[in-house]
Amino acid sequence: MNSSVEHKETGREEVIHIRGLHKSFEELTILRGIDLSLYRGENLVVLGRSGTGKSVLIKCIAGLITPDAGTVEVLGKNVPDLGPDELNVLRRQVGFSFQMSALYDSMTIRENLEFPLKRNLKIHDTKVLDEKVMSALADVGLERTANQFPAELSGGQKKRIGIARTLILQPEIMLYDEPTSGLDPITSEEINELMVEVQRKYGTSSIIITHDITCAKTTADRVIFLHEGEVGYDGPFESLYTTKNPLLSTFMQYFNLKEHERAR
Ligand SMILES: Nc1ncnc2c1ncn2[C@@H]1O[C@H](COP(=O)(O)OP(=O)(O)OP(=O)(O)O)[C@@H](O)[C@H]1O
Ligand SMILES: [Mg+2]
Q1: Total-model pTM
Q2: Residue nearest to atom 20 of ligand 1 (CA)
Q3: Whose CA is nearest to atom 2 of ligand 1?
């Protein structure tokens, strides 16, 4: 389906178009007028301190949270206006890889991957299921885990299975919420490469929320920095280090320090 819109100024095709997005929880104002565009085929990284509303933002995109004001157009449809059936269609086109991998512990990896195929695509043919499961496992390099249970896998493997379970529906857009959190640098690097590979192989457009500067550097075509519910920076990764924005330079100094510590 190709129902997105063209950006007025850039002429590039927008798969997500957000304007004036506001969200509060009772007295607590989280998003204060977010404007954001995601262009077809790009990886957009969202940086920002803990609690600034990064997860709330992508939950608004996935229709899991209803905004107080603003438009959230995804593939040409305003998400807050969608009824349950249209939301189900949207959720097939927009894959959400959660902050916690959220696999079903009582199911094998194969059953975990079959679940969205049966539920969302109503596929029950065992041969088709098997082909799709094995191809998704091959994409994340974990074919051999098909008959294991989540408890038998490492944290990094579980993250990859979580991503495979989202990719199995071949979404046009992927939303990754902290895909590398809690992983060692080598495993993180594997996840970063996987996200770039997904973009290359399937032409997927993605939003990647991260606190991991290496992840941002490896995967980002563009970066936005959320600060106190607003977009404080929107541009290339390289310019993050030279921006005059004092809030962002403090944030980046913290990462420079971390890189330095890692190099010691
Ligand atoms: N369903 C909810 N009900 C009430 N408050 C919420 C809800 N979801 C999020 N919040 C609040 O919104 C704020 C932003 O939360 P969010 O999860 O988006 O932060 P974040 O930027 O993703 O942080 P982190 O980097 O720690 O994941 C927090 O103060 C959180 O408590
Ligand atoms: Mg979060």
Answers
A1: 0.90
A2: 51
A3: 25
Sequence-ordered strand ranges (E) for the chain: 5-6, 13-25, 28-39, 43-47, 69-74, 77-78, 94-97, 173-177, 205-209, 222-227, 230-235
Do residues 75 and 93 lie in contact, with contact meaning Cβ atoms separated by under 8 Å? yes
CATH number, domain of 88, equals 3.40.50.300
What span, in angstroms and rounded, lies between the C-alpha atoms of 105 and 109? 9
User: 122 alpha carbon to ligand 2 midpoint, in Å?
Assistant: 31
Q: pLDDT tens, 53-69?
A: 999 999 999 999 999 99
Evaluate whether residue 134 is within a structural domain: yes
Question: pLDDT tier at 258 (50, 70, 90 boundaries)?
Answer: low
Residue 25 Cβ < 6 Å to ligand 1: yes
Domain housing 125: 43-67+83-263
Report CA-CA distances (Å) from 70 to 39, 178, 223: 19, 25, 22
Instruction: Considering every ligand atom shown, identify the ligand nearest to the alpha carbon of residue 53 and give its number.
Output: 1
